[in-house]
């Protein structure tokens, strides 16, 4: 029999049921709540357990093929990088195709052995292939954790995070908020050009090989990517996440030789520097700190998109600059908040089912709410190729 979806009494159309159980909404303000005893919560140094590459067609490879090498200019204080160059040949990633966390799941499927416990490693190949438990509490992209860390100090952009508990692991996946969708649609030509500047900057300072030279006459693309996969722990929460890494600097003295590239407008006044520290450096710090990247290479540009100088910023020295500012941000608050949020997720998402989605929503400066989505909702993100063998 054909089902009617038009009838007024068909309640199954309403996929979204407000989560009305005992878990109250999680507060994000006042930030003093997340000061705790003032000490940093336990955060284990992230360790790289693998990596993945995405080629120009965004196809997954379980390797380091897309890793780039940092090629510093002769004089970092005096450069001339025209970031608008080649804008009309930009090969842009298809943003309409949503990738969810599929590439991380592909990496997990290629690296099941890395999740086995010591006693499980002794079992037969057949038995080992049956083991789906990752012995990991959370799996997500690093960008999602960056957003969570910045939440206590963020006043503009909210977020939408879908969570599915599957075989003991909480998988987290970000979705665009309505406001973000609107912003993307309404981007002006100037904004699109400025978004290109960041990608072009990377091309000016990288090569495919350690002794290679930058090829700045070739088209820039934002499809290729190299991502590190790391394991870490925050208090009671074991984490596996992956983040894009811009390049490696084989000359670096630090044990982690990865570097992050950023561009920003040159700072001309104290007010500009203050805003840079308050609103931009928090994001730069959170992003690089999460995967243990010690160095950020910052390109200072003018309004015409020409970089005139570079600066090496040490990730670990960033928080002190924030503390020196009047009502700056505090890394202790960021990490305590993340710990509290992950505990809240564990308390709230209790049904272990690959098709059940808990949707967490946040609009600053409000509370974090959660709604339970029924199977088949637009927020369901674990693919059957990942779940059907388990
Ligand atoms: O939730 C996320 N962050 C998702 C990321 C959801 C689904 C896919 N991805 C992809 C990104 O496109 C990227 O290739 O995963 C890869 C890395 O994720 P991430 O490291 O967790 O992302 P994030 O830390 O937010 O951004 C790191 C870099 C960006 O560098 P800048 O300097 O701009 O922070 O990843 C790149 C970009 O280089 N990136 C993107 N590249 C193409 N299209 C995009 C995008 N939409 N977003 C970030
Ligand atoms: Ca970057």
How do the strands and helices of this protein lay out in sequence?
Blueprint: E1 16-18, E2 47-54, E3 60-61, E4 69-70, E5 81-82, H1 102-110, H2 118-121, H3 125-130, E6 138-141, H4 142-150, E7 159-166, E8 169-175, H5 178-185, H6 189-204, E9 206-207, E10 225-234, E11 237-244, E12 247-248, E13 258-265, H7 270-291, E14 295-301, E15 306-314, H8 318-323, H9 331-348, E16 357-362, E17 369-373, H10 384-387
Parallel strand pairs: 6-8, 6-11, 13-14
Antiparallel strand pairs: 1-17, 2-3, 2-10, 4-9, 5-15, 7-8, 7-16, 10-11, 12-13, 14-15, 16-17
Helix pairs in contact: 4-7, 4-9
Ligand 0WD binds near residues 93, 198, 222 and 227.
GO molecular function, one term: nucleotide binding
Enzyme class: hydrolase
Protein name: Decapping nuclease
Describe this structure in words.
The protein is an alpha+beta fold and 390 residues long. The protein is built from 10 helices and 17 strands. The strands form 3 sheets. A 10-stranded mixed β-sheet has the order 1-17-16-7-8-6-11-10-2-3. The protein has a 5-stranded mixed β-sheet with strand order 5-15-14-13-12. Strands 4-9 form a two-stranded antiparallel ribbon. Helix 4 (142-150) packs across helix 7. The longest helix is centred in the last third of the chain and has 22 residues, at 270-291. It is globular, with a radius of gyration of 22 Å. The chain starts with 15 loop residues before the first strand and ends with a helix. Residues 1-13 have low confidence and may be disordered. Ligand 0WD binds next to helix 4, strand 10 and strand 11. Decapping enzyme for NAD-capped RNAs: specifically hydrolyzes the nicotinamide adenine dinucleotide (NAD) cap from a subset of RNAs by removing the entire NAD moiety from the 5'-end of an NAD-capped RNA. Residues 44-386 form the RAI1-like domain. GO terms for molecular function: metal ion binding; mRNA 5'-diphosphatase activity; nuclease activity; nucleotide binding; RNA binding. It is found in: Nucleus. Its cofactor is a divalent metal cation.
């Amino acid at each position: 029999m054909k089902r009617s979806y038009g009838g007024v009494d068909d309640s199954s159309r309403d996929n979204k049921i407000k989560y009305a159980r005992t878990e109250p909404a999680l507060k994000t303000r006042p930030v003093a709540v997340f000061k705790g005893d003032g000490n940093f919560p336990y955060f284990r140094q992230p360790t790289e357990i693998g990596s993945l590459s995405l080629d120009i067609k965004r196809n997954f490879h379980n390797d380091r093929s897309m890793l780039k090498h940092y090629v510093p200019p002769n004089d970092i204080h005096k450069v001339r990088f025209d970031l608008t160059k080649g804008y009309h040949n930009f090969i842009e990633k298809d943003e309409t195709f949503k990738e969810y966390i599929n590439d991380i799941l592909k990496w997990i499927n290629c690296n099941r052995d890395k999740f086995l416990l010591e006693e499980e490693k002794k079992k037969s190949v057949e038995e080992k292939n049956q083991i789906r438990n990752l012995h990991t509490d959370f799996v997500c992209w690093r960008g999602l954790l960056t957003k969570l860390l910045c939440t206590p100090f963020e006043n503009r952009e909210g977020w939408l995070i879908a969570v599915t508990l599957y075989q003991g692991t909480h998988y987290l996946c970000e979705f665009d908020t309505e406001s973000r969708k609107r912003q993307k649609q309404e981007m002006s030509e100037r904004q699109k050009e400025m978004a290109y500047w960041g990608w072009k900057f990377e091309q000016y300072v990288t090569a495919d090989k350690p002794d290679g030279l930058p090829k700045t006459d070739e088209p820039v693309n934002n499809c290729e990517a190299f991502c590190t996969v790391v394991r870490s722990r925050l208090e009671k929460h074991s984490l596996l996440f992956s983040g894009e890494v811009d390049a490696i600097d084989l000359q670096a003295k630090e044990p982690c030789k990865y570097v992050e590239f950023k561009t920003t407008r040159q700072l001309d006044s104290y007010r500009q520097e203050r805003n840079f520290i308050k609103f931009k450096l928090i994001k730069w710090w959170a992003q690089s700190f999460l995967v243990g990247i010690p160095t950020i290479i910052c390109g200072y540009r003018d309004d015409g998109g020409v970089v005139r100088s570079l600066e090496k910023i040490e990730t670990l020295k960033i928080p002190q600059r924030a503390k020196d500012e009047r009502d700056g941000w505090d890394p202790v608050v960021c990490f305590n908040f993340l710990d509290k949020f992950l505990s809240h997720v564990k308390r709230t998402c209790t049904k272990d089912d690959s098709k059940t989605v808990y949707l967490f929503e946040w609009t600053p400066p409000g509370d974090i709410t959660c709604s339970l989505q029924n199977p088949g909702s637009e927020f369901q993100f674990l693919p059957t190729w990942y779940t059907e063998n388990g």
